[in-house]
Amino acid sequence: MSKIEFKSKIKQNGKDNLVKFDSEVQISKWKKFKVYEFLEPVQKIQNRIEISENKVNIFSGPATINLELNKEIIIEYTTEVGFLFMSAYMNKLENKVEGEITIHKFMYTLTQGETEVGSYELYLKIKE
Predict the structure, then answer these.
(1) Are 56 and 70 in contact (CB under 8 A)?
(2) 3-class secondary structure for 60-104?
(3) What is the pLDDT at residue 62?
(4) Which residues 6+ apart lie within 8 Å of 5 measured at CB?
(5) Which of 10, 28, 64, 127 is the most exposed place for a label (fewest CB within 10 A)?
(6) What is the pLDDT of residue 57?
(7) What is the secondary structure of 4-71 as a DSSP string?
(8) Rounded mean pLDDT of the chain?
(9) Cβ count near 114 (within 10 Å)
(10) pTM, 2 dp
């Protein structure tokens, strides 16, 4: 079974937070995307992350974030009280394969109007 090492550095409301865990991961392909499906072990939320050369799609529970390198995308973010419309902008995407290890790093920001909701830096290390 393949494993994923997941790290997310989150900056929101002037605070830094780190989410870090290891999990089993299912790997597949969809169109030009490499697809990683795994369970976030603390909150037991199913995650699906699709990564291509210049795009990333994140599905975490009911929330979806679509990202494209150096392009602003309007997203509809599902919350418990309804939908929020935000802008997503990914300014970094690195994909590396070293033997059995695949590493993906990407950074993005979410804004609502003129207000930055947060900035996010994700690191995925997959051992197949």
Answers:
(1) no
(2) ECCEEEEEEECEEEEEEEEECCEEEEEEEEEEEEEEEEECCEEEE
(3) 82
(4) 22, 123, 124, 125, 126, 127
(5) 28
(6) 98
(7) EEEEEEEEETTEEEEEEEEEEEEEEEETTEEEEEEEETTTTEEEEEEE-SSEEEEEETTEEEEEEBTB
(8) 94
(9) 5
(10) 0.93
